[in-house]
């Protein structure tokens, strides 16, 4: 089969859906068509792809392949160059109904990798985890860069410098990596999440968990989440959490927010009153900015100074670690491909497979996810 890897065209997107490592594994059985320059922003040259067995082609040939590997959903212009019946694999926004309708109308068999279920067999295909891990790391790096003081405690001849206090809101994959990274830099860390198992994870990394007690069975039940993801908490619990967080944020130097609820706007966790109460020169990095933000004052693609606090609204921080983000993403994609290519190296989409069912958003002209 012909497998195409086009260059990403979405502004700010630096990643690529295959690397020489994954191309090498595929090239023994398939014709791999990599668009010239596809890896340039991830420091992968055309020559490196070629040495791994790829043929370097133009956009039309890469997009016209039988299977197209992408990072982000194709633009109208890209879709127009794809074949009816082609397979498309990428982070395709499974909650964007219009986008899925367009892919269905183009006759694509489109797999949205964000929808991979959180089961053991699918762990190696979990793009949300591989990219969130990187974003959590980079969020701390960006915060440390913006913050005008040290992260670790220092005792010097010129006196002592206090360790930075870091508050992490939302401790999924990104938040856990944020804690681990801030810890390595010597910060003192507190964290909050709705899901009860998180407390133990936070403490095992040497951070303090901000406990917001559950006062009703309903709160306790909702906090369990579904499929490893959080659900929106009742207003009363959110109010109690906000009160506690307000007090902790007043003491914090850096706040990193990562809280998401699939298919919904991000929950507001650091309101304007809390920002006003924070120390001058403190920093908020809002990883949820693209989903509306955990802080209503964050602005997409900008670092703003509000009430004396720097608020960083960079979406897709994984794009700033393009080489490793591509390497991990490409391995996720390779593992997913194994699921839809049979022993004879032919396309075989098993519609009964749990991972296929969850990720196949359009097929044969039909929209499969609403
Ligand atoms: P996510 O990106 O959807 O959300 C980030 C975090 O925000 C979550 O921990 C969520 O509970 C939290 N959150 C939501 N509302 C909040 C609020 N009001 N206050 C505070 N926090 C709030 O989550 P994620 O990073 O994708 O991971 C969620 C969980 O799934 C993690 O425990 C992760 O380890 C687990 N996971 C399991 C598998 C698997 O079993 N295969 C794979 C990946 C992740």
Q: How would you describe this structure in keywords?
A:
Rossmann fold, 370 residues, binds nicotinamide-adenine-dinucleotide, seven-stranded mixed β-sheet, 2 domains, 13 helices, 17 strands, alpha/beta, eight-stranded mixed β-sheet
What this model shows, in words?
With 370 residues, this protein is α/β, with parallel strands linked by helices. It has two domains: 2-115 and 322-367, Rossmann fold (3-Layer(aba) Sandwich); 133-320, NAD(P)-binding Rossmann-like Domain (Rossmann fold). The chain has 13 helices and 17 strands. It has helices spanning 20-27, 46-51, 59-63, 76-80, 97-105, 127-146, 173-184, 198-204, 217-223, 235-251, 272-277, 322-340, 354-359; strands spanning 2-5, 31-35, 55-57, 67-72, 87-91, 109-112, 154-156, 159-161, 165-169, 188-192, 208-209, 254-257, 283-286, 303-306, 309-312, 360-363, 366-367. The strands form three sheets. It has an eight-stranded mixed beta sheet with strand order 3-2-1-4-5-6-16-17, with helices on both faces. It has a seven-stranded mixed beta sheet with strand order 11-10-9-12-13-15-14, with helices on both faces. Strands 7-8 form a two-stranded antiparallel sheet. Helix 6 (127-146) runs parallel beside helix 7 (173-184). The chain is globular. The model has no long low-confidence stretch (mean pLDDT 96). Bound molecules: nicotinamide-adenine-dinucleotide. Nicotinamide-adenine-dinucleotide (NAD) binds next to helix 6 and helix 7. One of its GO terms (biological process) is NADPH regeneration. Residues 144-313 form the Alanine dehydrogenase/pyridine nucleotide transhydrogenase NAD(H)-binding domain. It holds the Pfam family AlaDh_PNT_C.
